[in-house]
């Protein structure tokens, strides 16, 4: 078993691809075992993070969740592993399909992230602030201000533009799938010796036939309208007995509230 962060595996490889509408967004993680999002309200929170390749065409590399007031929540590793600067990154919000329903690419105003720990994979969370002109964009996903244990959340789903199968192209279509949050014990038993430390603000979800996959890094796990988790890493996609690992948003709310 090896662990993989669920973002584009190599931006350098992607930048060498010849641009085509069907292939400008390659090797990213999409929702496994889900369905296309048709609900316009749910699309309000849909975020695709993109960089331009050498021919100037956008490529999706990570997801995120728009939480209103011009703020996006994503994963720290999306921004730090390849050392992306804010002037290199654009975001697309609200697209049903990145190929067929492209929305305006928005530049980034600010990036805030905690120091991502490459050993424990903790602190895998970041905030992106949009320019002032976009602070009035409506959102429909809230932040978990109340300290509820993550295992008590129900009615949860994961969202993203990533692959529907391990090491395949991204779907480009915004998708969702229902998912169940695992207890710390179940997570530890499933992911020995790579289980996350729930006390460091991480948790497991899935382990059945629904999962996040390449290109879904930074995307949201949402329960009853609250952003509970951020896609971080996993050993595969949609393999029974192998849950994915998520950053616990509530664990980082003190930091988030200071910035927002």
What's the CATH C level of the largest domain? Mainly Beta
Count of DSSP-assigned helices: 5
Mean pLDDT: 82
Give me the Rg, rounded. Answer: 16 Å
Supply the number of structural domains: 2
InterPro entries: Peptidase_S1_PA, Peptidase_S1_PA_chymotrypsin, Peptidase_S1A, Serine_Proteases_S1, Trypsin_dom, TRYPSIN_HIS
Family: Belongs to the peptidase S1 family. CLIP subfamily.
Protein name: Putative trypsin-like serine protease
GO molecular function: serine-type endopeptidase activity
Structure description:
Helices cover 11% and strands 28% of the residues. With 260 residues, it is mostly beta strands. The chain folds into two domains: 42-134, Trypsin-like serine proteases (Thrombin, subunit H, Beta Barrel), CATH 2.40.10.10; 150-250, Thrombin, subunit H (Beta Barrel). The strands form two sheets. Strands 1, 2, 10, 11, 12, 13, 14 and 15 form an eight-stranded antiparallel β-sheet that branches. The longest helix is centred in the C-terminal third of the chain and has 7 residues, at 184-190. It is globular. The model is unreliable at 8-30 (pLDDT under 50).
